[in-house]
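Lecture notes, unit on protein representations.

Consider one protein chain, 269 amino acids long.
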Amino acid sequence: MKKNKGKLLLATVAVGIMVSTALATNEETVKYEPRDGVINLYGAGGPHTALIRVGKLFTEETGIKVKVNFGPEHKWTQNAKKNADIIWGTSEQSTTAFLENYKEFKSKDVEPIYLRRAVIAVQIGNPKNIQGFDDLIKSGMKIVVTEGAGVYNTSGTGVWEDVAGRLGKLSDVIAFRKNIIDFAKGSGASFRSFKSQKADAWITWTHWPITHPKDAQIVEISKDRAIYRDLTIVTNEKADLDTVKFIKYLKGKEALKIFMSEGWKGLNT
């Protein structure tokens, strides 16, 4: 019996080593070859709507192809390691986390280009007549917040706590937390939860209600509780040669108009 257990243990260890070796080998065989004639952008959902619009306009004017790849990181990580010309981050903390996985991109090259504010998204018609944060700490409110839970890279991590604790009142955080019905992993999941659970409110970024006008509307957070996080981009010298041209366009007047229409602020706006 002991011999069989010993053989089983050895077999398990051997399989574990084989799997680890295979994964390591697969990782090593991923070659970074971004110069394919297409400017490939990768990042989390949210800013993608504005980026797609800017990319289409840039292609119309220059003929240079732009592809915006967005969503949860696990959906695009392997392709990004092969051909990403630009990685975008939806906040500084998410950018720093991304750079752990994409070694071709360096922190010194990260550039913040736009900024947006946190808002309260409510159901169409605002049935609970929510006017601001103070309404969210009333008993019985149902609130969705976005969190990474330590395993998911999202710009929304901690935003609700920043808003609730902004005035230095622990009682605000306690009361707000009691009303949270879902700590959703990522803004996409939060949006789905907000709709499916018919939540009274969702702490999110301004562009989500703006780009989904049939599902949510905005109630502003007062200036004394305002929270902003940025959109960053990063490239490298191996990227497609036209990437620099696109980045310049991304920070130009036409792109600024598009981003502002979705609730973003530029350098001097």
